[in-house]
Amino acid sequence: MTVKVYIVYYAMHGNEERLAKEVEKGANSVEGVEGKLWQACMCVPETLSAEELAKLGEPTKAKSDVPIITPNELSKADGFFFGFPIIFGKMASQFKAFIDETGDLWKAEQLAAKPAGILITTCCQGGGKEIVHTAITQLEKHRMIYVSTEIGYIYCTGMVKENEVEEKGEGTYGAGTYNGRVTNRSELADAFQRGVCIAVITKMFKEAAA
Where do the Flavodoxin-like domain residues begin and end (predicted)? Predict the structure, then answer.
């Protein structure tokens, strides 16, 4: 029995993809789990101008060879990790539009009881990581199971370092980093461990339901 974990993200700056790739590696490190990386399709036309996108790292995103997934294809997965940037204190509208297109899955309860984690990027430490709490409502509507990092601490043993001061974008809400700088080693290692976490929990749920 193969357990499928989809890591689905919208990248505006490039750091979202870097973190997502580490989550994928973590998921694939768990026996019996297949992690797969996807870019969320743009269900509505891009709202930012070409000039604005270039400033935000659009050239990096355009060169990505990660396949694009449509909303209805989410039903094929057993668990998820969703990634997006925070823009002015909210989930990026591009990813929100992707989620808004999952109405048919909601009606058919295709995502119910499936675990899901979240990764985000912000412009700074006070850039709105708490917004993950409003993103959770999207999961709740689908009756999905939000995998809190409080559970993730079981697997993310390096998250709490009492004797080390380091600028880190991750936190108790989910994997994360800051845009405008290179994602550091701690953030990448954390994303990997969260991939392990979501894979282990997804596998447990699928085995229990079998």
Answer: 5-210
